[in-house]
Q: What sequence folds into this?
């Protein structure tokens, strides 16, 4: 990526007009205007590791966990599970002294690039977040499981780890506390399914990246059979500000009406005037994100539909732009917040072709463990390809609707297939005529497939 495009990704507000401050932008206020990485000396000059020193000197391990729990921080990878609650699942038994902290940096959700920016430009923020989290969880070793294609992020993280080691912020007896923590960067082999935490664990162990049966959950049986906590990059990067500034400050960042606390990296891509990534308070509306930050559609294009948070979220219409951007706000209009990085679909795009492209990706990335996902997703691709080329059969749309239902939540081994078919179901709901246009009028009527649950 060129420096010019990186600058666009880190811009904040219309034409960079809104200043980032520690009080309002805990994730991004340290970013450099030239988009170069913030190394240790500069990071410490900008209060870097001050929260870690506070956590080690003034807070017990249980107090750190309770602080994060009371802050309302939720996972930023898409699932939105409360972070403090997840931390609280780790065993209290002091005899279980081998524990692991894993950072899920396998950012392979199409149309999502937020973690990349943090790792490339603020690697020490992630390291500080992991250091505080490891202290709270009594984890002696951590791994950053990184998407293999993120070459620059890997280089910057590895350099930052070495800087932290040399400064006594990683390794043995950190800050004179007697606490030891080693941190390693592990690049993955390139599978979308590794974003599922137990598939990530299997891959880290050198196994095939299949999700594991749960329970037991990783907090009880994780990496090499030991208690393990897995958190997303953006989630861990929130921890220093929460510990450093307090619970009430963090809660006060969100807009009124939002049930999610703090800020969120949000973005917009597609044929908008100012595609980019911004740190915004939970509760801003989709319209603010689209019009005030992304600048609306480019001249000559109109907004046809949009996805609020990655390829695995359902499509919405322009009239849904007034929904607030937090999990509950987006749920009110029928889909999920996901990763918070939206995509604009313009009036020139055929939805059938777009969905065929998406489902090809999801079908290819299935681990193949369970039948509905392994066979159902390629089936959807075959049907969509026929409709796209005008060779669809009567009953094909009903077959697709059956697949959406049959691969829905709770009907497959993990959440891969439900996420894959969510955009398909919403596209049929809102743009059915485009699917009907691909049904061959000369084809003999075919009875739709009947899906029967076992």
A:
């Amino acid at each position: 990526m060129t420096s010019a495009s990186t600058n666009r990704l880190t811009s904040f507000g219309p034409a960079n007009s809104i200043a980032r401050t520690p009080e309002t932008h805990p994730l991004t206020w340290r970013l450099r205007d030239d988009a170069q990485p913030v190394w240790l000396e500069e990071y410490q000059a900008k209060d870097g590791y001050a929260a870690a020193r506070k956590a080690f000197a003034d807070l017990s391990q249980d107090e750190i966990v309770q602080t994060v729990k009371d802050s309302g921080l939720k996972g930023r990878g898409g699932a939105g599970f409360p972070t403090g609650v997840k931390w609280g699942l780790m065993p209290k038994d002091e005899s279980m002294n081998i524990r692991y902290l894993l950072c899920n940096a396998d950012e392979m959700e199409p149309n999502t690039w937020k973690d990349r920016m943090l790792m490339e430009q603020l690697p020490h923020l992630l390291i500080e977040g992991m250091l505080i989290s490891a202290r709270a969880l009594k984890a002696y070793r951590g791994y950053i499981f990184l998407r293999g294609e993120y070459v620059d992020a890997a280089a910057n993280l590895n350099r930052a780890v070495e800087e932290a080691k040399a400064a006594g912020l990683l390794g043995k007896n950190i800050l004179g506390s007697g606490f030891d923590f080693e941190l390693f960067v592990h690049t993955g082999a390139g599978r979308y399914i590794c974003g599922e935490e137990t598939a990530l664990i299997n891959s880290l162990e050198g196994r095939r990246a299949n999700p594991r049966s749960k329970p037991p959950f990783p907090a009880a049986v994780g990496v090499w059979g030991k208690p393990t906590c897995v958190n997303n990059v953006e989630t861990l990067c929130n921890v220093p500000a929460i510990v450093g500034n307090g619970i009430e400050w963090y809660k006060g960042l969100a807009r009124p009406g939002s049930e999610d606390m703090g800020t969120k990296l949000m973005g917009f891509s597609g044929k908008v005037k100012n595609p980019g990534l911004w740190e915004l308070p939970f509760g801003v509306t989709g319209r603010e994100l689209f019009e005030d930050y992304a600048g609306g559609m480019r001249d000559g294009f109109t907004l046809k539909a949009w996805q609020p948070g990655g390829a695995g979220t359902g499509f919405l219409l322009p009239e849904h732009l007034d929904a607030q951007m937090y999990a509950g706000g987006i749920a009110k209009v029928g889909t999920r917040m996901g990763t918070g990085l939206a995509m604009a679909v313009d009036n020139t795009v055929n939805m059938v072709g777009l969905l065929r492209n998406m489902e090809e990706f999801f079908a290819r990335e299935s681990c193949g463990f369970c039948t509905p996902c392994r066979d159902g997703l390629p089936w959807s691709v075959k049907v969509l390809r026929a409709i796209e080329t005008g060779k669809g059969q009567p009953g094909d749309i009903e077959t697709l609707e059956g697949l959406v239902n049959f691969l829905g939540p709770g009907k497959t081994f993990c959440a891969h297939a439900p996420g894959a078919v969510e955009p398909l179901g919403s596209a049929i709901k809102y743009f059915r005529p485009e699917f009907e246009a691909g049904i061959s009028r000369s084809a003999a009527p075919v009875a739709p497939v009947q899906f029967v649950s076992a």
In short: The first strand starts at residue 100 and ends at 105. Residues 1-17 have pLDDT under 50 and may be disordered. Strands lie at 100-105, 141-146, 182-187, 228-232, 263-269, 276-281, 303-307, 341-346.
